[in-house]
Write a structure and sequence with these properties.
EC number: 2.3.1.-
Membrane topology: Multi-pass membrane protein
Number of helices: 12
InterPro entries: DAGAT
Strand order of the largest sheet: 1-10-7-2-5-3-4
CATH architecture: 3-Layer(aba) Sandwich
Shape: globular
Structural class: alpha/beta
Number of domains: 1
Distance between the termini: 35 Å
Oligomer: single chain
CATH class: Alpha Beta
Keywords: Acyltransferase, Endoplasmic reticulum, Glycerol metabolism, Glycoprotein, Lipid biosynthesis, Lipid metabolism, Membrane, Transferase, Transmembrane, Transmembrane helix
Family: Belongs to the diacylglycerol acyltransferase family.
Largest sheet: 7 strands, mixed
Number of strands: 11
């Protein structure tokens, strides 16, 4: 394989963008393990005056990710996130007005690898979210296992993410004054194993929990399609039924995390590495689907709303795909 090296005369802004994305990639690939290792070392070397107070704090703070988290405007406003957003760049497009007197569930599709589109748009103060949706607070729901990692959980919560558990989503949607948005990456980590460039395979056919929660809280459902999300990395071919996919599913079952064998570009060359490609991400927020509050929805009511949601998601994709270089024959594949 012939290496294509980056030119030496790259503007400083682009170098800073690359550095910002590098720290983000390393954070989500390594920081949790490093934090667990630090805690283990504190215990092994008996630094009790450090780990005992923290474990006491952890005991009383354990439920915070289920109760709206603990975001920090200071952390969300770090300049690094502006460079992170501009690397791809990341865009948020609104198609309909939303009423800040109501609560909403944004179904985000596809998951892609590490979901930078969802993170950049809903977890930093450099996206257009506040300008497009004034009066709203967005909560990105992520897998609960991240919040079991000591120290790392504090950093993650400071950026706004909360647990994806039913209790956590219900807490966000219980705001009587409205103005809360639960952002749920419906396909989950499993869908990242389908994140191949040019493909839009979504694990949604059996994902009905978010629809049932929407019914019990009367929260309107809003489909969000993120063009470019699957184009940032390539991964080793892993079709359904292959030995690799089987192993990945077993790892996912044991840890809650999917492990796609990914690659993209490098820091100083464009041929191979773990840095995502510079591909624009456009997250299109569709029109809300009104939901009548039903405290005890029947399976039939859940199924009907689920079908309506999938139809709206498909319409949103078909309506906008041509603007972002998606061929006319390309369709969403629901699994």
């Amino acid at each position: 394989m012939k290496l294509e090296f980056a030119p030496l005369n790259i503007p400083l802004a682009r170098r800073l963008q690359t550095a910002a994305v590098l720290q983000w990639v390393l954070t989500f690939l390594l920081l949790a393990q490093v934090c667990v290792g630090i805690m283990a070392m504190l215990i092994i070397y008996n630094y009790w005056f450090l780990y005992i107070p923290y474990l006491i704090w952890l005991y009383f703070d354990w439920q915070t990710p289920e109760k709206g988290g603990r975001r920090s405007d200071w952390v969300k406003s770090w300049t690094v996130w502006r460079y992170f957003k501009d690397y791809f760049p990341i865009h948020l497009i609104k198609t309909q007005e939303l009423d800040p007197g109501h609560n909403y569930i944004f179904g985000f599709h596809p998951h892609g690898i590490l979901v930078p589109g969802a993170f950049g748009n809903f977890c930093t103060n450099y996206s257009d979210f506040k300008k497009l949706f004034p009066g709203f607070t967005a909560y990105l729901h992520v897998t609960s296992c991240w919040f079991r990692c000591p120290f790392f959980r504090e950093y993650l919560m400071s950026l706004g993410p909360v647990s994806v558990s039913k209790k956590s989503i219900s807490h966000v949607l219980s705001e009587a004054r409205g103005g809360n948005i639960s952002v749920i990456v419906v396909g989950g980590a499993k869908e990242s194993l389908e994140a191949h460039p040019g493909k839009y395979n979504l694990f949604i056919s059996q994902r009905k929990g978010f629809v049932k929660i929407a019914l019990t809280h009367g929260a309107s459902l809003v489909p969000v399609i993120s063009f470019g999300e699957n184009d940032l990395f390539k991964q080793i071919n892993n079709p359904e039924g292959s030995w690799l996919r089987t192993v990945q599913y077993r790892v996912k079952k044991l840890t809650g995390l999917a492990l796609p064998l990914l690659y993209a570009r490098g820091l100083f060359q464009y041929s191979f590495g773990l840095m995502p490609y510079r591909k624009p991400i456009h997250a299109i927020v569709g029109r809300p689907i009104p939901v009548q509050r039903t405290l005890h929805p029947t399976p039939e009511q859940t199924e009907q709303l689920h079908q309506t949601y999938m139809e709206e998601l498909r319409k949103l994709f078909d309506e906008h795909k041509g603007k972002y270089g998606i061929p006319e024959h390309q369709t969403l594949v629901f699994k």
